[in-house]
Amino acid sequence: MPDPSSNPAPDIAVTPVMKRSGHVVMVAAAVENAVGTGRLAELVLTHEGIPGDRHAGFLRPADVRVPWFERHAPIQNERQLSIVSMEDLAVIAGNLGIERVEPEWLGANIAVEGVPDFSFLPRGTRLFFPSGAVLAVMGQNDPCRIAGAEVERHLGGQGGLALRFAAAAKRLRGVVAIVDRPGSIRGGEGFKLRIPEQWIWQG
Amino acid sequence: MPDPSSNPAPDIAVTPVMKRSGHVVMVAAAVENAVGTGRLAELVLTHEGIPGDRHAGFLRPADVRVPWFERHAPIQNERQLSIVSMEDLAVIAGNLGIERVEPEWLGANIAVEGVPDFSFLPRGTRLFFPSGAVLAVMGQNDPCRIAGAEVERHLGGQGGLALRFAAAAKRLRGVVAIVDRPGSIRGGEGFKLRIPEQWIWQG
Fold first, then answer.
1. Which InterPro entries match (chains A, B) (predicted)?
2. Pair B58, B138: CB distance under 8 Å
3. Burial letters for B42-72: b for 16+ Cβ neighbours within 10 Å, e otherwise?
């Protein structure tokens, strides 16, 4: 019989921590209450996100994405920032049969390149930027009709694109993140990633 | 060649959302600055955790658990609450060759039973309590020497237990969580769990 102290944990395969790097293509912030964002040279972040942005704050009102909460009830804000990858946007564009999808159309705050399967980065992944800013990935972003309508608008109203967007962008829409350490992020700079241990709970 | 729009996402297996239920065995809060906690009838929670507790707050100072941050730098607080399972504590006790490990010795705020592999619940798991309180699991808790010393103290100073604790409790030490919706949690009540979609990022 094996010594129980040599095998204390359940028999669940744990994928070790991984470290990677990527490149910031652009940063952007909301323009008043528009869905889309506007490109900036630099994004300056506090612990609550982008100061003055409608997604800033430690808390946010519950919405249709979290139907188990009463609508508008204050909950922890996992959505201070939206981050997409240029590679995923190219796949969305291909799925829609259009030339390109710009990160600003989707309201992204940061667009990156060089990280494979970016939209699948697990919760708890940390992104480290040269200024000392650190972001924590809180989950996959969901495509929505509003973003689809914005894509359609930028393409001069091609009929039906808004409806097709959700399917075309599923699991390609990037991640949402919060600010673990304040700082600034600039287009053109590199960043490091720390992907935490991963496993599948079978329950 | 397959229609790309029918398979827009990378080929990563996604484990669907799961729903489970469990039972609260006891709740406890810190007693002044002691490591251990003291049992209560009810835990009353705000969005910042347990009011007045040293682990309360939207932010916390970085410590040895997150060595990539400057020590004491304020970071997002993922550790408002510590939750353990009676099943995992029984395995720790077995690994140490002692009769029992009480949740209070480890500074746990909530002890549960009925959830298999509790310490492996993935980040983003939500726990729903009858009052309307909802907790969000933020990660596996790490065993530490301090908790081990507390176990040793409760057992009258059996030599070496503190040192053996970290190995004996690895991946059995429960999870840390934050308060997504305020409310109260009571010993003896049931709760529901929502385990989010899971996958392994291979990068």
1. MoCF_Sase_C, MOSC_domain, Pyrv_Knase-like_insert_dom_sf
2. no
3. ebebebbbbeebebbbbebebeeebeebeee
> What architecture does CATH give domain A23-182?
Beta Barrel (2.40)
Find, in chain A, the residue whose alpha carbon is nearest to that of B8.
Answer: A168
Looking at the predicted complex, does its ipTM rise above 0.90? Answer: yes
pTM listed for this prediction = 0.93
Contact B139 A196 (CB under 8 A): yes
Q: 82-121 in A: which are within 8 Å (CB) of B?
A: 91-92, 94-96, 115-117, 119-121
Q: How far apart are CA B195 and CA B127, in angstroms?
A: 9
Confirm or reject contact between B8 and chain A (CB < 8 A): yes
Q: Which residue of A has its CA nearest to B2?
A: A95
Q: Is the pLDDT of residue A70 over 90?
A: yes
**Helix (H) and strand (E) counts for chain A?**
3, 12
Q: What is the pLDDT of residues B80-105, one digit of tens each?
A: 999 999 999 999 999 999 999 999 99
Q: Which of A5, A170, A181 sits opposite B9 (nearest CB)?
A: A170
